[in-house]
Structure formats: structure tokens, C-alpha cells
UniProtKB/TrEMBL annotation:
It comes from the Archaea. Pfam families: DNA_photolyase, FAD_binding_7. One of its GO terms (molecular function) is FAD binding. Its cofactor is (6R)-5,10-methylene-5,6,7,8-tetrahydrofolate; FAD. Residues 1-126 form the Photolyase/cryptochrome alpha/beta domain. Keywords: Chromophore, FAD, Flavoprotein. This is Deoxyribodipyrimidine photolyase. Belongs to the DNA photolyase family. One of its GO terms (biological process) is response to stress. The lineage of its organism: Archaea, Methanobacteriati, Methanobacteriota, Stenosarchaea group, Halobacteria.
């Protein structure tokens, strides 16, 4: 018997750990609700997780098997379940965040004590941390060089999915769960807790449909159309030109090899701009792997600046301004639209993520850690490596090759990427009767004009030009410039 411990690989297809276990089979699949992980989760992610698990369980049931679901500390659960099943080996997909690595190191020791072999595998990304380095063997701090090596490496094909013969039957799983009835944790074949059992309320945001089937639909729709205009349109939030696969990739409801294979097929026989556009999309997949490298090599980036400055950065951290940013009431329309999209959909368009992150750190002079914590709570696709990488990039403490004086102008960004104000008015209805040109000049109007045009929408809480100067001084002081 083999035990496969599902974590962020909630699928049966293109699952390297599961396929590895199935080669020796039969496999008993397990998922563990870990309180330490749940304590860092937000309601949108728990919703997606539960829906994805329900689908995964269904996939096993269709094959005469089931999913063992436990609630407890994996350090105790995994070896005990392995013993109850008399499993020879446990497999799982490696997670690169510090918290997961500490936990997994303990689980490995516990399995050794229990005499169970274990085989953690790299599954979530093509090229694991440490495999793409500078010629001197260091992790790249600049993405462009990383990308060139990533692009030129071979990409394996998807792994086969197990069939009924490869899996433990449902009765065997139920017997193992019953044998653990007196354990200090709960385990059952199939039963999933509700969101309130896990201590969360239903999210107010509408989270996109979860699971492999929904992810495959998104992938196939994207690869038959938007992928060819991705390079031109990806920065425009109303053009629906991105894949929307981030939450699926975060929870592993679709495998990276399957995604890449679909993009490679979309590339076949097309030339010129269409070919370049597909490659542009593939280069976004490489960003995930770049940030996984960074996180694995520098686990302290979760709380510390990646880039070292001579002195501490003197963040201003004004509580009222931070609250206005979180609520989407800064008086900067594109910023407010983004922050409201986050609350409504547990998602935000990438260009707008960059704008709101720059605004928080360079206009409100607020520590990126506050923004990261807010995103972590609200994003369905929150991923430690990508979220942290994005925040540190935007706040000039990360891997951005540009210096600290890259400061987004929220008005020109709005004008360029949402010229008709369509995205803004979708999320900021107070501005729906205001023309796009006036929206993009909101900061230049008089209080009286603003009051007349949109009485319920706030005036800008800060002056961008003034704050830009302050941000530059703040970074110069941190650099130790005279
Ligand atoms: P697409 O444009 O279709 O991209 C395809 C996939 O490539 C994405 O699903 C994602 O897995 C990956 N990808 C794309 N851009 C990036 C990037 N810059 N960095 C890393 N991976 C990328 N992405 C997350 O997955 N989780 C996060 O928590 C997250 N937080 C972010 C925070 C900030 C401040 C910023 C600036 C960016 C953040 N991103 C994060 C990156 C990016 O915004 C999202 O991946 C993207 O918007 C998701 O939409 P999509 O799936 O349609 O993307």
C-alpha cells in the first residue's frame, strides 16, 4: 500500500506524486486540515479549497476509491494513517514556503520512526529551486536572466492519472479510518467539514468555480482565443485577456505540465505576433518559478525586505490612510476600483495589483507588510512566493531591477489602462455618471466640482506629487544618501 498526501495538488491528473505512488500501488489518498495552515487562510481560499476537495473526492469515488480526510497535526496524522493502512511509502508534492518546510521536515522524521519510506517530489513547478542558477551557482535576483534559462530547458509531459486498479478501494480506506477512531485527531473516508466547522464564515466575495473541470475550461477557453492577444491586452483590466488560472495553480487543481502542454499546442503552426504572444504567457509561468526560487533561497522574505538598505525605511504607516486604501476610498479611482474588486471577487487584475501596491507604499508611505497581510486575507489565489514577490517588487524592497524611484502615477495609469473608465465605474458606481476624462482628472477638480459630480465619492486623501517627493526622500534616507 502507498499513501499519497494531497496538499496543494488537488487533482488526480498530471500529479507527479500520485503517479509515482500509483506505479507501486495501490494508493490511499489523504488530505489533512492543518490548523497552522488554516490560521493563515482567508475565507475565499477556504471556500475554494472545500469545493476543490469535494471534486477530488468525487474523482476517487468514481474509481471505486475515496479520499481520507483528517483534521489534526500532520506530524501525528500522516504516520498514524500510514500505520493503519500498513503503507510502505508516503508520497507528497514539495511546498517551498518556510512554514511548510518546517512541518514537512518533522513529518519525514515521524515517518522514519514509524519505518515508512517517503518520497516527496517536485510537482508544482518545472524547475525546482536551486536548479536554475547563475554560472556561480547563485539564485538569480533578476528575472530576465532566469527566464532565458527557464525557457530553454526541456519541459516534461503531463503525468498519467491513476485508474481504479491503482487505488485502494473505499472499504479498505473506511476500515483504516475506523481503526483510528480513538486517535487524537479526526479521520474519515470522504466526509468533508463545512466552512463553519473550520471556523470561517462564507466569504462575501464571489469566488470563481473551483476544481479541475473548471480550471480545464478556463485553460481551453484561454488557449483558443485570448492567448493570442495576451501580449497586447494583458495590461488592460477590461479586456479579459488573462487566463484566470492563478487560484487553480495555487491549489494545484490543474498541473503545470498540462497548462504548458496546452500553450505549446496553441503555439504550433502559428508564427509572428501570435507566437510571441504565447511565449509572453509562458514567461508569466516562469515568474512563479522565479519567486519559488527566491522564497526557497531566502525564506525570511516573508517578513523581511529582500533588498538590503543601509538604514531602516521610515514608513509612515498612517492608520486612517491604510483603512481608506483597504476600503477603496482613497479618492484615486483606479486604486479604489482595484481594492473593491479584491473584496468583491477575491481577485484583482495584475496591472491594478501593481498600481494599488505602488500607491500604498509610495503614496501612503505604508510598509508593504500591511498590504501583503490584506492581500493574504482576501485573495483566493494568495500564494506566499508570488504575493510576497509582487509586494516587494512594487515597494522597491524586492527583485525589481528598476530603482526605488519607479513610482506609478495612479492618474496616468488609470488613463492609459482604463481609458474609457469602464473598469473604474464597474467597481466604483459613485462615478458612473462622470465622464472618463473627468474621472482621470479627479485630483485636479475643485472640492465644489467633485461634490457636484459625485457627492458620495471621496476627494483624494493625499497629493500624489507631494507624496512622490516624500517617497524619494524616504528611500534616499534608507540608502544613506546625503
Ligand atoms: P495570467 O496573466 O493569466 O498569468 C498566468 C499565471 O502565471 C498566473 O495564474 C500565475 O500563476 C502566474 N503569474 C502571472 N504573473 C505573475 C507574477 N507577476 N508573479 C508570479 N506569478 C505570476 N499571483 C499569485 O498567483 N498569487 C498572489 O498572491 C499574487 N499576489 C500578487 C501581489 C502583487 C502586489 C502583485 C503585483 C502581483 C501578484 N501576483 C500574484 C501576480 C499576478 O498578479 C497574478 O498571478 C495574476 O494577476 C493572476 O491572474 P491570471 O491567472 O489571469 O494571470
Amino acid at each position: 500500500m502507498q499513501l499519497h498526501w494531497h496538499r496543494r495538488d488537488l487533482r488526480v491528473a498530471d500529479n507527479r506524486g500520485l503517479a509515482t505512488a500509483a506505479e507501486a500501488g495501490p494508493v490511499a489518498p489523504l488530505f489533512v486540515f492543518d490548523r497552522d495552515v488554516l490560521d493563515h487562510a482567508g475565507a475565499p481560499r477556504v471556500r475554494y479549497l472545500l469545493d476543490a476537495l469535494a471534486e477530488l473526492r468525487g474523482a476517487y469515488q468514481e474509481r471505486g476509491s475515496d479520499l481520507l480526510v483528517a483534521r489534526g497535526d500532520p506530524r501525528a496524522v500522516v504516520p498514524a494513517v500510514a500505520a493503519a493502512l500498513d503503507a510502505e511509502r508516503a508520497t507528497w508534492a514539495i511546498d517551498y514556503s518556510g512554514l511548510a518546510r518546517e512541518r514537512d521536515a518533522d513529518v519525514r522524521l515521524a515517518l522514519d520512526d514509524a519505518g515508512v519510506a517517503r518520497e516527496p517530489v517536485h510537482d508544482a513547478i518545472f524547475h525546482p529551486p536551486g536548479s536554475i542558477t547563475t554560472n556561480a551557482g547563485d539564485t538569480y535576483s533578476v528575472y530576465t536572466y532566469f527566464w532565458k534559462k527557464w525557457r530553454d530547458r526541456d519541459k516534461p509531459d503531463p503525468y498519467p492519472e491513476p485508474d481504479a486498479d491503482d487505488l485502494a478501494d473505499a472499504n479498505t480506506l473506511e476500515t483504516a479510518a475506523e481503526a483510528l477512531a480513538d486517535a487524537e485527531f479526526d479521520v474519515a473516508a470522504g466526509d468533508l467539514p463545512t466552512i463553519s466547522d473550520l471556523g470561517f464564515e462564507e466569504p462575501s466575495a464571489s469566488v470563481q468555480p473551483a476544481g479541475t473541470e473548471a480550471a480545464r475550461e478556463r485553460l481551453s477557453a484561454f488557449c483558443s482565443d485570448a492567448i493570442y492577444r495576451y501580449a497586447d491586452d494583458r495590461d488592460y483590466p477590461t479586456r479579459d485577456a488573462t487566463s484566470r488560472l492563478s487560484t487553480d495553480l495555487k491549489f494545484g487543481t490543474i498541473g503545470i505540465r498540462e497548462v504548458y502542454a496546452a500553450t505549446a499546442a496553441a503555439r504550433e503552426g502559428v508564427g509572428g505576433e501570435r507566437d510571441e504572444s504565447v511565449e509572453e504567457f509562458q514567461s508569466q509561468l516562469a515568474w512563479r518559478e522565479f519567486y519559488a526560487h527566491v522564497l526557497r533561497e531566502h525564506p525570511n522574505v516573508v517578513t523581511e525586505n529582500y533588498k538590503e538598505y543601509e538604514n531602516d525605511i521610515a514608513w509612515r504607516d498612517d492608520a486612517d490612510e491604510l483603512a481608506a486604501w483597504k476600503e477603496g476610498k482613497t479618492g484615486y479611482p483606479i486604486v479604489d476600483a482595484g481594492m473593491r474588486q479584491l473584496r468583491e471577487e477575491a481577485y484583482m487584475h495584475n496591472r491594478v495589483r501593481m498600481i494599488v501596491a505602488s500607491f500604498l507604499t509610495k503614496d501612503l508611505l505604508c510598509d508593504w507588510r500591511h498590504g501583503y497581510a490584506h492581500f493574504r486575507e482576501h485573495l483566493a489565489d494568495h500564494d506566499t512566493a508570488n504575493d510576497n514577490g509582487g509586494w516587494q517588487w512594487a515597494s522597491s524592497t524586492g527583485t525589481d531591477a528598476q530603482p526605488y524611484f519607479r513610482i506609478f502615477n495612479p492618474m496616468t495609469q488609470g488613463e492609459r489602462y482604463d481609458p474609457d473608465g469602464e473598469y473604474i465605474t464597474r467597481y466604483v458606481p459613485e462615478l458612473s455618471d462622470v465622464t472618463a476624462n473627468t474621472i482621470h482628472e479627479w485630483h485636479e477638480l475643485t472640492d465644489l466640482e467633485r461634490e457636484r459630480l459625485a457627492p458620495d465619492y471621496p476627494e483624494p486623501i493625499v497629493d500624489h506629487s507631494e507624496r512622490r517627493e516624500r517617497a524619494i526622500s524616504m528611500f534616499e534616507a534608507a540608502r544613506g544618501d546625503d
